[in-house]
């Protein structure tokens, strides 16, 4: 059998572009389209093609493209489920491992992590520990990019947002230091010990200034100091958190600062969370220390405030984390928060807003759980709870793009967690809905505050006492309130001493002494007199207090 082979070719140019037309040049292709549309044959050809195209369109509309051909196939959910996964893990390279105390993202596309390690347990008996902290490449969890070697352990470490090579740190001995990673692993500037803090520096934040060289720091000794990197020997300004006159302020009486907050859009304002659970809103423009700490919210939490941050889109609303709850406050309402979470079984250790999705905030717990809350979705419980590790989570820091969160734990390990898109990307109406919700809750709280003030005023008007005490909004400073409180204290002391005497009599095996409460109560006027008239009862004293 014999085969014959022939070669043939076809020159096809219909529907294509001429050789002299560059497809990547948008302007050139537009000119060619306009030229073709002006041709007389263009309309005749299009009318001929419309008939075939119309037939195809009608046929396509007659077919149900959404028909389910297979009944056993699970349908794809229309709404993305909330999820989180661990991307990388960064370990403390020293032994024994030390807790992670602070995390900071670098400003250059946030490709680096500055992580500080320090053991802050008071009088803890531990083996000799290293003082080093690390800067990691996000994509390389095997070896740190730079190992910082200070003389004392670093408690907090913060990148300068205008210069990715400069960092500020607060050390456990109360000094602050400046680092330039281009010059090595040693600090380039260090504050003088005499002009530094007494206790460890818990917070360091850069100030939005023209020079980019100013920052301020706080400590548990109750001081806030402002610094300039060009002259780190002396602080430019010092504020003592003591509500006394300037000449009477003492560090020993100051409120320990547990957290600092600074918003770059409000350069003269700052906020402080204290170890006693108080929130202080400060203003650097004040002439005296009292004017700089004019606004305060006492008893915001039952213990130290672990986190304090303003909402990125609504600066007058801020988040606080402390004890077992997280709360959202408004500057217009000082007596109570407007939104709060339920009490958790494990204590909360840190919290932060999402930089991209305005209604989302994060909290970490002592049992190693990360909670993601979306206020527009639900408020009774977290939208997502993830058990990251078995150890206590100590701090968190969210990436500016919202998808990544860095979490540090008690064992010196840092976890990089990636969230799903529905927890990191805002939709069209998110800001409008969140605005209406925050305004509604603020109005509700204002109504409750006005009602409480009205009830307190009516109660004071019913109580006997001078008229000026009724007119005074703070009746705790009045004489009647002080006297009733003293009576309550004396009554409590009498009950306490009586209980002690009874217990001592039981231990000695003798008869119990007669009740001595009557004598004490007669002195305080808290029992019935001879005429049977009761002057002041324990219940009244308690209510007055």
How are the SSEs ordered, and which strands pair?
Layout: H1 26-37, H2 40-62, E1 84-90, E2 100-105, E3 112-117, E4 133-137, E5 146-148, E6 154-160, E7 163-171, E8 176-180, E9 189-190, E10 201-206, E11 214-219, E12 223-228, E13 237-240, E14 257-261, E15 269-274, E16 279-283, H3 289-292, E17 295-297, E18 305-310, E19 317-322, E20 325-330, E21 339-340, E22 348-353, E23 360-365, E24 369-374, E25 384-387, E26 393-398, E27 404-409, E28 414-419, H4 430-462, H5 467-471, H6 479-508, H7 517-524, H8 538-544
Antiparallel strand pairs: 1-28, 2-3, 3-4, 4-5, 6-7, 7-8, 8-9, 10-11, 11-12, 12-13, 14-15, 15-16, 16-17, 18-19, 19-20, 20-21, 22-23, 23-24, 24-25, 26-27, 27-28
Helix pairs in contact: 6-7, 6-8
Characterise this structure.
By secondary structure, this protein is α+β, with helices and mostly antiparallel strands. It folds into 2 domains: 84-422, Methylamine Dehydrogenase, Chain H; 476-544. Helix content is 22%, strand content 28%. It is built from 8 helices and 28 strands. It has helices at 26-37, 40-62, 289-292, 430-462, 467-471, 479-508, 517-524, 538-544, and strands at 84-90, 100-105, 112-117, 133-137, 146-148, 154-160, 163-171, 176-180, 189-190, 201-206, 214-219, 223-228, 237-240, 257-261, 269-274, 279-283, 295-297, 305-310, 317-322, 325-330, 339-340, 348-353, 360-365, 369-374, 384-387, 393-398, 404-409, 414-419. The strands form 7 sheets. A 4-stranded antiparallel β-sheet has the order 1-28-27-26, with no helix packed on it. Strands 2-3-4-5 form a 4-stranded antiparallel β-sheet, with no helix packed on it. A 4-stranded antiparallel β-sheet has the order 6-7-8-9, with no helix packed on it. Strand 19 and strand 20 (325-330) form a beta hairpin. Helix 6 packs antiparallel against helix 7 and helix 6 packs across helix 8. The longest helix has 33 residues, at 430-462. The radius of gyration is 34 Å and the shape is extended. The termini are far apart.
């Amino acid at each position: 059998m014999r085969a014959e082979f022939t070669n043939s070719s076809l020159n096809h140019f219909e529907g294509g572009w001429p050789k002299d037309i560059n497809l990547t040049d948008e302007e050139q292709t537009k000119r060619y389209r306009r030229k073709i549309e002006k041709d007389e044959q263009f309309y005749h050809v299009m009318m001929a093609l419309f008939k075939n195209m119309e037939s195809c369109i009608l046929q396509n509309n007659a077919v149900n493209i959404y028909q389910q051909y297979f009944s056993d196939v699970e349908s794809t959910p229309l709404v993305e489920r909330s999820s989180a996964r661990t991307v990388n893990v960064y370990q403390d390279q020293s032994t024994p491992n030390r807790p992670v105390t602070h995390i900071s993202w670098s400003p250059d596309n946030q490709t680096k992590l500055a992580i500080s390690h320090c053991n802050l347990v008071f009088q803890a008996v531990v083996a000799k520990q290293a003082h080093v902290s690390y800067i990691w490449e996000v994509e390389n969890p095997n070896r740190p990019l730079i190992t910082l070697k200070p003389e004392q352990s670093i408690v907090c470490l913060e990148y300068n947002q205008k210069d990715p090579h400069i960092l500020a740190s607060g050390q456990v001995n109360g000094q602050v230091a400046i680092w330039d990673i281009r010059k090595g692993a040693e600090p380039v500037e260090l504050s003088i010990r005499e002009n530094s803090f007494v206790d460890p520096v818990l917070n360091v934040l850069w100030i939005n200034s023209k020079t980019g060289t100013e920052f301020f720091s706080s400590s548990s000794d109750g001081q806030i100091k402002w610094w300039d990197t060009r002259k780190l020997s002396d602080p430019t300004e010092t504020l003592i958190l003591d509500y006394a006159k300037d000449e009477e302020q003492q560090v020993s009486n100051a409120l320990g600062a547990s957290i600092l907050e600074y918003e770059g859009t409000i350069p003269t304002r700052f906020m402080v969370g204290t170890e006693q659970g108080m929130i202080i809103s400060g203003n650097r423009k004040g002439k005296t220390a009292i004017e700089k700490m004019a606004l305060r919210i006492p008893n915001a939490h039952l213990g130290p405030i672990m986190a304090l941050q303003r909402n990125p889109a609504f600066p007058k609303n801020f988040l606080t984390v402390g004890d077992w709850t997280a709360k959202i406050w408004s500057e217009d309402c000082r007596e109570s928060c407007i939104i709060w979470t339920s009490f958790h079984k494990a204590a909360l250790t840190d919290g932060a807003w999402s930089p991209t999705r305005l209604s989302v905030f994060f909290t970490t717990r002592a049992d190693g759980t990360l909670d993601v809350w979306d206020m527009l979705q639900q408020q009774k419980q977290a939208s997502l709870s993830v058990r990251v590790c078995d150890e206590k989570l100590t701090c968190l820091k969210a990436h500016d793009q919202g998808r990544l969160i860095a979490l540090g734990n008690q064992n010196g390990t840092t976890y990089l967690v990636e969230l799903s898109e529905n927890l990191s990307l805002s939709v069209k109406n998110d800001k409008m809905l969140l605005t209406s919700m925050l305004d509604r809750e603020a109005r509700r709280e204002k109504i409750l505050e006005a009602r409480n003030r009205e009830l307190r005023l009516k109660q004071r008007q019913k109580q006997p006492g001078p008229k000026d005490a009724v007119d005074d909004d703070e009746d705790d400073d009045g004489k009647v309130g002080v006297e009733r409180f003293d009576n309550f204290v004396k009554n409590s002391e009498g009950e306490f001493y009586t209980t002690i005497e009874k217990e001592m009599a039981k231990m000695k095996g003798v008869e119990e002494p007669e009740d001595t409460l009557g004598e004490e109560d007669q002195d305080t006027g808290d029992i019935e007199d001879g005429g049977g008239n009761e002057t002041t009862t324990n219940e009244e004293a308690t209510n007055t207090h």
